[in-house]
Predict the 3D structure of the following.
Amino acid sequence: MNSSTLYPLRAVRALALQAQRLSTPHRQTPSPDVEDVYQTIEQIGWIQIDTLQVVHRSQYLTLWSRLGTYNTEYLDHLLFDGGNTSPDNKRRFFEYWAHAACIIPLKEYRFWRPMMRRQVERETGRRGTWAHEDENAKLLRSVIKQIEAAGAARPVDFRTEQKAAGTWWNWDQAKIALEHLYNTGQLAISNRINFQRIYDVPARVLPNWVDRKEPTEEEAFRHLLEISIQAHGICQPAQVGDYFHMKRTESKPIIDSMIADGSFLSVQAKLVDGQVHQMLVHPDNLPLLEMAAEGEITPGRTTFLSPFDSLFWAKGRDTSFWNFRQVLECYKPAEIRRWGYFCLPILYRDKLVGRFDPKVERQTGVMRLKKLYLEPKVRPSNRLIWSISRAMKDFMCFHQARDLVIEHSDPPEFGAKLMATI
C-alpha cells in the first residue's frame, strides 16, 4: 500500500460487502449445510436476534441474505442443541448482548466475560441499586438456588397466585431477577420455546471445551474491536465500536492505540459525498481492498436485507457508502410511516436500489408486499428486474410462499414488471 493511495467508492463498497459475505451470488447447489451457517456467523462476528416475525425473524433472515434458502433448524441446533445439558453438548453459539441481543460463537465466550462483569460494576440509577437491596439480593440467591436444584426455568415457572412455602417472589420480580442474572453471566440461555427464553446455569449450558479464562477488560475490548473491523471491512475510526455498541468516547483511545501499533491500518477513500475520508481496515483485509480497487472483486449478489442486518451497524455508513437511509418504522404509528412496518432493503450488486414491506401469510401461502419502492434515479431495467425476481422466488421458497401480491409499487412499472416474471 502506498500512503498516497486513494481508494474509490466502488472498492470501499466491494470490501464492505465481501467482509459481510454479501458479495458473491447465491449458489444453487449444494444446499447450505450446518457448517455454512456456522462459518457465516463466524465471519461476520455475531448476528442480531429480534422478535418481529412478519417474515422469518431477523436472525434467520440475516443468514438467508447470505446463503439463500437453508434449513433454519441448523441455527437452532448450533445455538441450543435441543436444550442438551450434558458437558459434551453440541452448542457452538451462545446468546448475549453485542450490538443488541445477538448470537455469538462460543469460541469467543471468554472475551464477553468482562462485559458481564461490567454489568455488575457499572450499572447506574435504579438498575445499579436494585440487586444490592436486601430483598432483591435474597431473591437473586433464591432464583439461582432453585434453577441449580430443579433445572432450567422460564419466567412463567415463577408465576403463581398461591405462594408455596418458602417462596416470596412475584412473577415480575422473578423476571427482573432472571434478566439480571443473565446479564451478569450467572445464568445463560439454554433453549427457547415459542421464542421464550429458558434459563439455566452456565455449567449446564456451555460445552466442556469452552475456554472460560477471563482476559482483562482492555484485552477483551481490543479483541472485540478487531473482530468488528474485520466484519465491517472498512469504516471510519469512530464507527468501529458501533458493531457491539461500545461508546465512541470509550473506544477512541483503544482504536488510536491499535492504529499506532499497526493492528488497524489507516487508508484514504472517496465516499458518496465526493470527499476524501480517513478510513480504517484490518491488515488482513488490505489485500482485498487493493483487489477491489483493481476490479478483481466485483459484487454480484442480489438479495434482501433485514432492517437489523450487520451491514448497517456502523452509524451513518448507509448514507456515506450507499446514499441510502436505512429506517425501521415498526415502532412508529402507522399514519406517519413513510416506507412501511418492516421494510427490507434491496441489495443489487454493490448498490442499495430499493426496499419493500413484506408480510408472509402463512396459512394461505401468500407473500404480500404492502409497499415496494425503487430509489430515486434507479431504472427498472430488465436486468435489474430479472435479478430481483430471482431473489424474490428464493425468498418466497424460504417462507414456503406460493403466491406474490404487490399492493403498492413506486414506480408502478417496477411492480408490474416484477409480477410478470414471478
Notes: The chain has 15 helices and 14 strands.
